[in-house]
Protein: NTF2 factor
Organism: Cettia cetti
Amino acid sequence: LQSLPFQKIQHSITAQDHQPTPDSCILSMVVGQLKADDDQVLGFHQTFLLKNFQGAWVCTNEVFRLALHNV
């Protein structure tokens, strides 16, 4: 993490949705905003799959995307 090109980062979660899957996992989607140093605020969404493994929830899959647009 020390090699990342920013010193501080702030985040705000604006929405989140969670639902069970047929195989007893939990599918979660989070939408929010990130601000690194003095850069502009960027939207993001993140989706991940949680699975109960021996009594602990483990993230087995994850997708993160910044909401960047070429307008």
